[in-house]
Amino acid sequence: MTFTARRLLVPLLLLGTAGPALAHNPMCECKPIDGEQIECTGGFSDGSGAPGVTLDVIGYNEEILVPGKLGDNSKLTFKRPEGEWYVLFDAGPGHVVEIDYADIGEP
Predict the structure, then answer these.
(1) Given 48, 63, 85, 105, which residue has the most CB atoms within 10 angstroms?
(2) Greater model confidence, 105 or 49
(3) Which domain holds residue 48?
């Protein structure tokens, strides 16, 4: 085997031993239920839930209106706040989802 062939073969072998990167992107859905209530469900694209993950409702002035964490069922229900706000699902760096109140809709 020539030197050039060996130089090309080594990177190819290394690529073959690398496993696929398994990404699990954060997902969060919020919907109106029972009049003035909002229910948010969080999880990841690999199908896993997100119990205990922070889900805060924050006003446009950056005040936390409803501090929360997802329950064992990966859900959080809260009363719809007045004014303009958004939901922040925060599972750590690179795993954040924001949902604006206007995207949730009316009951």
Answers:
(1) 85
(2) 49
(3) 22-103
Q: ∠ CA(91), CA(67), CA(92), 5° rounding?
A: 15
Cβ contact 40:74 at 8 Å: no
List, in sequence order, every beta strand (DSSP E) within 6-71: 26-33, 37-44, 54-59, 64-66
Q: How far is CA 53 from the centre of its chain?
A: 9
- Residue 38: CB atoms within 10 A of its CB come to 24
Task: Say yes or no to pLDDT of 18 above 50.
Answer: no
**pTM recorded for the entire structure:** 0.77
- d(CA 100, CA 107) in angstroms, rounded, equals 15
Alpha-carbon torsion angle 89, 78, 73, 23, nearest 10: -10
**Does 26 reside within a domain?**
yes
Residue 8 lies in a domain: no
Dihedral, 28, 40, 93, 20 alpha carbons, nearest 10: -40
CATH at residue 87: 2.60.40.1930
